[in-house]
Amino acid sequence: MHDPSNDEELVRSAAALIISRRIAIIGTVPEKPKPHHEPEEPRAAESGPEAERDLRLMRCALEAAALAAERGEVPVGAVVAKDGEILATAHNERETLKDPTAHAELLALRRAARELGSWRLTGCTLYATLEPCPMCAGALHAARISRLVYAAQDPKAGASGTLYNLPADPRLNHTYPYKSGVLRDESAALLRAFFEQRRGRQ
Amino acid sequence: MHDPSNDEELVRSAAALIISRRIAIIGTVPEKPKPHHEPEEPRAAESGPEAERDLRLMRCALEAAALAAERGEVPVGAVVAKDGEILATAHNERETLKDPTAHAELLALRRAARELGSWRLTGCTLYATLEPCPMCAGALHAARISRLVYAAQDPKAGASGTLYNLPADPRLNHTYPYKSGVLRDESAALLRAFFEQRRGRQ
Q: What is the DSSP letter of B150?
């Protein structure tokens, strides 16, 4: 006869086997409490000094995105700032640099790290005009970013709330809070105009 | 009285609203059929020309990883090859370059793109001694890589089968097959020795 308690036992020993195998490969990891980050709560009027700062810095990211469009690149821009001061600005340069990793966010992170002389961008905020993809959301973990603000969502590759929620994954060794929608319509309009023009040319 | 059909209606209209909002932001995406990739089936004896090639190229990635350890970097190495010929080799250089994105895989992809003069690495295979993290697995999508082979799994950040299965996600605009376990024990031993030595020093 089928005894369901045997199944449970089997699942438990399989899990134990998998865990012990992983420990054998990489070694044990010391447990440390990690903060759990959810998207920031939208505040009633979205006003106040932080909202104004976010708007000002997103405008800079949007200017970088507009520059990308002029150069025939998909218009995405990014800014890394610390205490409201800009450390680095970048726009997508995939075609210009012939580099698959030359997304605006990745370039901005690398430039900011060069500026600070450290790969740790603790205390920094990244502003991006489009929701970061898995590569860029992962790079934000790698850089130990403190906060992400983005404009438009990306239903095709967004990894910061849309297809994945990488910023808030408590299994990774770092998490970061994020806010979306700042200058969303302006960023979306820039992208739409770029793709419409490109389709028109083809 | 509570009518569950109202709930269904509500969910359906909410979904329609979200979809129409996303279309408004980014525009519609033409549907195209995409191949669905699962991990490659391990073959009975893991022999034959492809297995031998994988072993030879993973040995090169492992040599790069050993070089990283000598330089005080977490020992991870990567190779990009096309038709069995090496296009680029890299090891983790995060500390040396003070660059949060300087993982072995990302550096190897960028070098291979420079070598080919194109961001598209179609036809190329990436060999990595550790399972790619979200950033690196995402970069493989961005580079349109054709195949991934890795040695050891990464229970802490692996995004190629462990925490996430990014290579096989059919929602992304590219998928790629992967194989794991090639020289797994050698790669794991190198990582273990590095961390043991570092702990000993502290």
A: E
Say yes or no for a CB contact (<8 Å) between B26 and A192: yes
Q: Are B104 and B76 in contact (CB under 8 A)?
A: yes
Mind listing the pLDDT tens digit for each residue in B67-97? 999 999 999 999 999 999 999 999 999 999 9
CA gap B183, B146 in Å, rounded: 21
| Catalytic residue from among A85, A105, A115, A131 | A105
- Does residue B154 contact residue B130 with C-beta atoms inside 8 Å? yes
- Chain A partners of B171 at a C-beta cutoff of 8 Å? 156, 163
B 97-136 residues with CB below 8 A of A? 97-103, 106, 109-110, 113-114, 117-121, 133-136
Q: Does A144 touch chain B (CB under 8 A)?
A: yes
- CA-wise closest residue to B151 among B47, B85, B64: B64
pLDDT single digits (tens) B154-170 = 999 999 999 999 999 99
Contacts of B24 in chain A (CB under 8 A): 188
